[in-house]
UniProtKB/TrEMBL annotation:
This is Large ribosomal subunit protein eL14 domain-containing protein. Residues 51-123 form the Large ribosomal subunit protein eL14 domain. It comes from Minutocellus polymorphus. InterPro entries: Rib_uL2_dom2, Ribosomal_eL14, Ribosomal_eL14_dom, Translation_prot_SH3-like_sf. Keywords: Chloroplast, Plastid, Ribonucleoprotein, Ribosomal protein. GO terms for biological process: ribosomal large subunit biogenesis; translation.
Amino acid sequence: FTMSFSRYVEVGRIVLVNYGPESGKLATIIDVVDQNKCLIDGPEDITGVRRQVIPYRRIALTNLTVKIARNARAKTLKKAWADAEIESKWENSAWAKKLAAKSTRANLNDFDRFKVMVARKQKSAIIAKKMKQLA
């Protein structure tokens, strides 16, 4: 059993922009420009990413794809997104959940961090108590 490579740079591949002003947003590869760059589009009214050429080092490929032709129009792309239910699939993925948790944690204030610390202490106390009973 070998895990073969399955995420290819291809037309219709959903990517996560990981650098620049659109960082953290999803987009779709519409055309491959050359060895280092591709053309992506949001669709803009869903993800807020305008149609643009972007280097591969600024994007991360996801497991999601949509069926579109090369250089698809925004309307076609939007319909493909709706048909493939990309947003709901993304929100249910472990990757998206991890990013959401990370941003939640980053936006905590001092009192929230204190509450988290107290909760962790309580949890570890309960675990220690149970382990003591089992031993």
